[in-house]
Amino acid sequence: MQKTLLFITAIFLLISFSHSRPNRNLGNILNCFAQIGDAIEDITTLVASIQENEDISVILESIGNVSGQIKPLVQECSNPICLVDAQKRCEESTGNSCEQYGAIMYPKCNDGFFNVGCCLCESQCPPGFRDDGLFCAKPDSYGRGAGYPWEFGDDLNLNDAYNRCQRDNPQGCEQNGLIIYPKCAQGFHSVGCCVCSPSCPSGTTDIGVSCTKPVYGRGVGFPMQYNDCENESSQDNDSSDYLSLDPEQLKNKILEYSQNFMQNKDDQDLSVQFAIELSKIMAALEVKSSNQ
Ligand SMILES: *[C@@H]1O[C@H](CO)[C@@H](O)[C@H](O)[C@H]1NC(C)=O
Ligand SMILES: *[C@@H]1O[C@H](CO)[C@@H](O)[C@H](O)[C@H]1NC(C)=O
Ligand SMILES: *[C@@H]1O[C@H](CO)[C@@H](O)[C@H](O)[C@H]1NC(C)=O
Signal sequence: where (predicted)? Predict the structure, then answer.
């Protein structure tokens, strides 16, 4: 029902825009309002999760969903120059190629890394490991059997035991105590006499059942500035301005700007401006939460 109303509003605005704003990009205006409708659904969920004081991980998941909506919203609802300028600022400052998350441009994660939320770059788990977010859970350990002990009839050393083991185990054998064991398979190391435990890949830290992933932050990024489109000198702040706020204050800001967004959903320009601002505040909360 919300969508139908927006659609009617969109047609009405399309007519009035085409008289009052001849210079704006008009081709995508219907997509724009459909996109605002989609964003409203996810913002409503985000507002509810903050008001119900949900766990931060639920709030961050909601933020991810809203950012996913804001990206196409900004693309559909604003002049493409807006996006190009933020990308240029990002690429010039970081010397990296950049990608959009929400309404913010970030340097792309290094090879082998992928972004989690706005601001963290994480590596992928090796094959066989389970991805647990910041950890890679190891595959199961295995036993390497009772081994090959000295037997009656052997010389007074372990050479014969070694040869028996070697004959059955082409990967090779090694001594532990007075017993010869088959070596652990590639990617595993022995723990005590008899268990082969998976090794963590290089660059990760072994914490027993899991390996911690290498993770790095990619900063607060380069937000779009709505004024980019209009060649005005820009006074926009960026997400780093919001980093001085604590998580509770940031949540309140999110509520405030969500409300601003909802109340101005019929205005293409204001919707983009509030979406950009909301993106910055959400990014600041993500950065703050990942620092803890
Ligand atoms: C995020 O979006 C996905 C897919 O639409 C949905 O399954 C999930 O419940 C949403 N999460 C939150 C916290 O809104
Ligand atoms: C605004 O910027 C665009 C792109 O940078 C340029 O093509 C255009 O001429 C500028 N307009 C004014 C009025 O300066
Ligand atoms: C950032 O700018 C917006 C308006 O552009 C303003 O409402 C907001 O308070 C500013 N935030 C900070 C932390 O200065």
Answer: 1-20
